[in-house]
Write a structure and sequence with these properties.
The chain starts with 13 loop residues before the first helix and ends with a helix. It is an alpha+beta fold. The chain is built from nine helices and four strands.
């Protein structure tokens, strides 16, 4: 029995953003590959891990696999992925920039950060909080669901493209918040470090 593709959940950002960038033909190829990956994926019970697979990991992997199968080198395929991700997530970056114009954005970030990070459950990320105060918000992740999943698919190198999206979003969010990440697992480190520093305190 042929699976109805309409019954498969799709990323609300990736696929609508991808279509105008690659055209109908390649879009349909990516969609078909994503659907195949989704149907064969051993979906976790955790709803947030499913969310990350559907909204980010599997769509990006589908496109990356096709680029490699078309004959693109790893370097060229990753460069194309970076270009696509930057365009697809442009609206998300702008949302954070609008938020960043609030005069109390660091205070707001400090208040909501631990609630927001519930989107990264312990089943996928081993997270250690190090500092949440008026000077900085710091935590590290000793494991990464994206890296582990993409490694299982033979594409650990793709993980760094998702790290780059973080850099684009948070690095350009606000002059009041300094994004000070220095390393990630995807880029060869033992853990990922995250730091949102209060720019007003850092300037003193």
């Amino acid at each position: 029995m042929k699976t109805n593709i309409k019954s498969i959940p799709l990323s609300k950002k990736f696929f609508p953003g991808l279509l105008p960038l690659v055209g109908q033909k390649q879009y349909e190829l990516v969609l078909a590959r994503y659907s195949d990956l989704y149907l064969k994926c051993d979906m976790p019970e955790n709803a947030m891990l499913k969310h990350h697979l559907v909204q980010g990991i599997l769509p990006g992997l589908a496109y990356y696999q096709l680029l490699r199968e078309e004959g693109k080198s790893q370097e060229a395929a990753l460069e194309k992925i970076d270009q696509i991700f930057e365009a697809v997530f442009e609206d998300h970056m702008k949302e954070f920039q609008r938020l960043g114009r609030l005069p109390f954005v660091y205070t707001l970030l400090r208040a909501v950060i631990k609630t927001a990070m519930r989107e990264y459950p312990a089943e996928g990320w081993e997270m250690i909080w190090q500092q949440v105060d008026g000077n900085a918000i710091r935590f590290r992740m000793n494991t990464c669901f994206y890296y582990n999943t993409l490694s299982a698919y033979g594409a650990p190198e793709l993980t760094a493209a998702y790290c780059r999206v973080d850099d684009l979003i948070y690095g350009n969010m606000s002059s009041q918040v300094l994004w000070q990440r220095t390393q990630t697992i995807a880029r060869g480190a033992e853990y990922c470090d995250f730091c949102f520093a209060n720019a007003r305190k850092a300037a003193k």
